[in-house]
Amino acid sequence: MPPSRPPLLWDVLREHLQEAAFLWEQRQRSLLASDYVLAEIAEGDEARLLAHVEGLVIAGRPAAERLLLPALEGEEPASIAAASCALLESTEPDWLPTVLDWFVQGADEVREGISWALSLSGRPDVSPALVKLFPSLGELADKIFALEVLRARQANTGPVLERLAVRGEEPELLAAAIRAARFAPGPMAEGLLRQGLEESEPRVREAALETGLILGNRQAWALCRRLVEAGEAQARPALLAVALGGEPTELEALSAAVGNPACRAEALWALGFSGRLSAAEAALAALREQGDPLAADAFAFITGLPLASVLADEEEGAEAAEEWPEGEEEEEAQEEKGEASEEDALGVLPGPEPLPGKVRVEAVEAWWQKARSHFEEGGRYLLGKPVKPELLPALMEELPMRRRPVLGWELAIRSRDACRLEPGAWARVQRKQLEAARELRADSLRRTFARWFTT
Questions:
Q1: d(C-alpha 156, C-alpha 25), whole Å
Q2: Residue 340 pLDDT more than 80?
Q3: How many CB atoms lie within 10 A of CB 240?
């Protein structure tokens, strides 16, 4: 006779679920935060979250039926995600079909929470099950969520995309399809890319540029250069691409875009990723003109300037905050300063965030006088350190979470998609994905894209 199971402590299990939901929400926010690095998430919220999920899994079927399945009827995506994660980890019985049923039948917040759990699940049968389910998805939101899950799981999306008909009034679906096409057979991806590059809808065009550069599409790179030269305000991937791989003349166009109020914040954000000495000087020149933290942030990301040491003290920062306008004017001013959009998503390249206070420009100048001699004209630097393939995994551990998706995108471009960093994956998965960066050639991180897209 098997040993009897100890009685379940339901108060403890409810606490497991509540804490897992709270930590899930915390982790989601941290993934695009400017003040977190990967180790802080891995050893903090993520480790605690996984421990609470494990506690729910160990409790078995009684906990699933009494706590986890009812949680799928809720309205909080984080709670739904935590419950779904525990259900997917359970094996007796297999709850995947039940979770997928809720994915199809549930409200938007249910689909959102379940999609988070499906994206992170290590089960190999999730992707084929979702591909099989896709033809039965009728709602536009269902299809977008499913495509995003498959993209995040880096699954073969060919079987889905070949049966997907996208109408002109569905730009969000087309953008999701183009991002998912990165993992589809070449001819299918090329067709979607052509369609996306001809679109004027920013969401679609951005998706086409992001995916096109990863797949080595020359038209995507040519469009990036044209958009930056034209001073296009809604062209984040183009600005970032020129920063990451532009020739000196193209970097000059990016520096000129800093003077355009319509795209100043985006141009400064992009400039910081260049890592070149000329980009650092351009950011410093912009800082001298207006003294704004975004310029200092770009300069610091290249040079390693300790930003906190040159910001005005708390009293000065408070005075600056009091002078800031309110209401509609405040909203417009925050947009000018580059406030992160509420639409930030892990499948999309993130943009700049506002920084509080003022910068003491004279302190930056004094620091740079001493530090400049450590930077070579032909080198590339991030956080003041040379960018080299063998150092990248360690460097990526130090980067603010908000900046990692852009560098991950660059690695995918330069490795011809051999290095596939998924910024929303569990930390252990991300670290494994980054090992492919070690295989890059020594000069590959300094080569311009003009050379890259002709080889």
A1: 29
A2: no
A3: 29
Q: 102 or 452, which is more confident?
A: 102
CB contact at 8 A, 80 and 70: no
Cα gap 224→397, rounded to integer Å: 29
Q: Dig out the tokens for 267 from the structure.
A: 């141009």
SS (H, E, C) the chain: CCCCCCCCCHHHHHHHHHHHHHHHHHHHHHCCCCCCCHHHHHHHHHHHHHHHHHHHHHCHHHHHHHHHHHHCCCCCHHHHHHHHHHHHHCCCCCCHHHHHHHHHHCCHHHHHHHHHHHHHCCCCCHHHHHHHHHHHCCCHHHHHHHHHHHHHCCCCCHHHHCCCCCCCCCHHHHHHHHHHHHHCCHHHHHHHHHHHHCCCCHHHHHHHHHHHHHCCCHHHHHHHHHHHHCCCCCCHHHHHHHHHHCCHHHHHHHHHHCCCCCCHHHHHHHHHHHCCHHHHHHHHHHHHHHCCHHHHHHHHHHHCCCHHHHECCHHHHHHHHHHCCCHHHHHHHHHHHCCCCCCCCCCCCCCCCCCCCCECHHHHHHHHHHHHHHCCCCCCEECCEECCHHHHHHHHHHCCHHHHHHHHHHHHHHCCCCCCCCCCCCHHHHHHHHHHHHHCCCCCCCCCHHHHCCC
Share of the chain above pLDDT 90, in %: 70
Phi-psi region of 338 (alpha: psi -120 to 50; beta: other; left: phi over 0): left
pLDDT over 70 at 321, yes or no: no
Provide φ and ψ at 421, rounded to 5°: -85, 125
Summarised one tens digit per residue, pLDDT across range 34-67 is: 999 999 999 999 999 999 999 999 988 999 999 9
Where do we find the tokens 């956080």? 383
Angle formed by the axes of helices 293-303 and 361-371, to 10°?
20
